[in-house]
Amino acid sequence: MAKIVVLISGNGSNLQAIIDSTETGKIAGDVVAVISNKSSAFGLQRASNHNIATHIVDHTQYDSRESYDAELANTIEQYKPDVVVLAGFMRILTAGFVDQFTGRLINIHPSLLPKYQGLNTHQRAIDAGDTEHGCSVHYVNEQLDGGPVILQAKVPVFEDDTADTLAERVHVQEHMIYPLVVKWLCEKRLRLQSDGVYLDDLLLPEQGYA
Ligand code: GAR
């Protein structure tokens, strides 16, 4: 079984979707630890509910990004994970950290990257008059919400949408595409090459994702 470590800062609904997919066997892996930079993150409770180890690595206790990321990397590495998943982990990571986990470090972002990196993506899509919006799962590099995109899902933007209604529509998609990409990584079917991202083999209905 592949070992998955998930980093969070908040609610953890994507974490929950991934845990659920491991427990139903859709993902051939286990979430072995959940790490948060905030002790108040509800996702820590979600992890405890499933008897998953939790750690708080509080960024306010470190005086540099480098020292914080070094401690974060140590905490992660003790689990020797195959996959490191950022699921609403709201911190910019140093190049050293990203290098250490290249090829096994992924993030989900609530926009159709490269559009709307950073915060308030739903309101920005509405303000721009976009008719479609969505979410992206990508390999992480040292740029904020940067790195090669693996999979995206699109949703329509309706005229009466608020940031909340649009976020809700995007979340439904996040909870489908993130477990799917984690599944591919656990099966070692994704390859990050200098010329792009490759998925080996066709998706078959009997694999649960027709
Ligand atoms: C998700 O919408 C995710 O795309 C976003 O944070 C939310 C976390 O929700 N991530 C980013 O904005 C990263 N730049 P969750 O805690 O319920 O999974």
Automatic annotation (TrEMBL):
GO terms for cellular component: cytosol. Pathway: Purine metabolism; IMP biosynthesis via de novo pathway; N(2)-formyl-N(1)-(5-phospho-D-ribosyl)glycinamide from N(1)-(5-phospho-D-ribosyl)glycinamide (10-formyl THF route): step 1/1. It catalyses: N(1)-(5-phospho-beta-D-ribosyl)glycinamide + (6R)-10-formyltetrahydrofolate = N(2)-formyl-N(1)-(5-phospho-beta-D-ribosyl)glycinamide + (6S)-5,6,7,8-tetrahydrofolate + H(+). The record marks D145 as: Raises pKa of active site His. It is an enzyme of class 2 (transferase). Keywords: Purine biosynthesis, Transferase. Residues 3-182 form the Formyl transferase N-terminal domain. N(1)-(5-phospho-beta-D-ribosyl)glycinamide binds at G12, S13, N14. GO terms for biological process: 'de novo' IMP biosynthetic process. One of its GO terms (molecular function) is phosphoribosylglycinamide formyltransferase activity. Its EC number is 2.1.2.2. The active site is at H109 (proton donor). Coiled coil: none annotated. (6R)-10-formyltetrahydrofolate binds at R65, M90, R91, I92, L93, N107. CDD domains: FMT_core_GART. Belongs to the GART family. Catalyzes the transfer of a formyl group from 10-formyltetrahydrofolate to 5-phospho-ribosyl-glycinamide (GAR), producing 5-phospho-ribosyl-N-formylglycinamide (FGAR) and tetrahydrofolate. This is Phosphoribosylglycinamide formyltransferase. It comes from Psychrosphaera ytuae.
